[in-house]
Amino acid sequence: MSGACGGTIAEIRSLVSSGQASAVEICRAHLQRARDVEPRVKAFRALLEESALSQAETIDRDRREGRPLGPLAGVPIAVKDVLCTRGVPTTCGSLILRNFVPVYDATCVARLRQAGAVIVGKTNMDEFAMGSSTENSAYEKTCNPWALDRVPGGSSGGSAAAVAAGEVPASLGSDTGGSIRQPAAFCGIPGMKPTYGRVSRYGLVAFASSLDQVGPLGLTVEDVARVLQVIAGHDPLDSTSAPLPVPDYLAALGKGARGLRIGVPKEYFRSGLDPEVETAVQSGLKIAERLGARLEEISLPHTEYAIPTYYIIATAEASSNLARYDGVRYGHRAHDVHQMGPLYVRTRTEGFGSEVKRRVMLGTYVLSAGYYDAYYLKGQKVRTLIRQDFERAFEKLDAIVTPTSPTPAFRFGEKVDDPLAMYLSDIFTVTLNLAGLPGMSIPCGLTRDHLPVGMQIIGRRFDEEMVLRLGAALEGEIKFGARRPSLDGTS
Amino acid sequence: MAIAKQEVRHIAKLANLDFSEEEIGRFTQQFNSILEYVARLDALDTSAIEPTSHVDSGSHALRDDVLVPSISREEALANAPESERGHFKVPKVIG
Questions:
Q1: Which CATH superfamily is domain A9-267+273-300+391-482 in?
Q2: Do B79 and A382 touch (CB under 8 A)?
């Protein structure tokens, strides 16, 4: 079975439902592809061959016995290792969770299974999703399939690389400040952060609870829509999940861009933007115009305050969320410590990597007595201003388009010693998490070095339909999908 | 607002983390460059602005107070580094 690998969800789904290929054959083909490329890409923390094949067998049996097949029947999907999977280790890229085996599935994972998806593995990530290059994984470095000497982006670097390398047609990531969109851009695939509240966070290991959101990455915008359709919707187990109906996302895809009003914020095209990224995004905008959209330069005046605001709020929430790792109920426990206080300290000092410690420290500082008002409260107030920028802009717009990241994929080691430089690679994506808005990166071109460039489409809250609609229209003209990485290049 | 090594040590204590002197030095340096960057927020007058703690998704957090099935005691303890007789086991807290 060679046709299955590299196929989109729709193609795989139709092979399975028509009986042209069994789910087991498709699963085997993808596992074989993964075994072939993993030594170079290292997208996965773990491949789940046995359980994947048994899920696939169930799909085949359902088909033979005439039971209805789910919308993702037989589709191999990879899941970021930050999402709890029952009976399967979930490490979050951290040593402190090295042996953690969840006793329940995250809601989005459970929904994937119910839809017939075959979970083929858990993908590598920056420890606790803190990072923009996946270099902060305690376990391995994932390589960018387009240039193996470069990072795949992060923190969902494994989920993006697995799709770009043809190991799976789609994956789940999580996005707190750009962790789906930036790796999607670096790896040349679409990836979406839905509106805060659109997808349940139950079973997503928490980093910054007011910013975290689960979302799909896929080979095409349609793949993203098909996965979102399954994972979106209210969940009583997540008190912040929105009790709203989920629209038919596939129906939004064919509507084109004619007449759409697109805002282009000038603050996102200033110094620091790589000229090749700017060229690719501008050419994408020209395509939007050719498709009948109206472009309008807008201003989001508080953009320059987004990164400092984000790093106050995200680290504050992280320091609180990560207080739970104390060696008592789960995770690593330091050996031979016979007092409670030292047990906490030793356990955490051994279990956390340096970026996680840095953020826990920063978060502790901004929440500490005497600094709360100056930092945390101030950050929350500026968050209001950033949110209002978007609210005002969307009064007369359907979508906003920006670059996803100021640069294409950078080399390993380039930013690891300079935390601030690493933080700045999220400059165009953190604003959406602060404002709770949906956004998707789609590939819009390649640099001279053959590195993908992403453009970010931003929608109103809960208007993923518009984001997908514009994304599909642009994708149809940009025709990036025909270009795939060779997996043998460096740059 | 520059931060000194002594203060970094204090934060480490609050965060239940331990660092070598070298790490404290490095953290202090990195903290100061990050905080210097964060200080650009001081340029904004936010005295009349309401804070946003999270963007409301319109959810209703409260549900009826009814019993629903939950994980078993064995499952709850399945990942415990140490447990005994159905409890999490920790070192003596009070001497």
A1: Amidase signature (AS) domain (3.90.1300.10)
A2: no
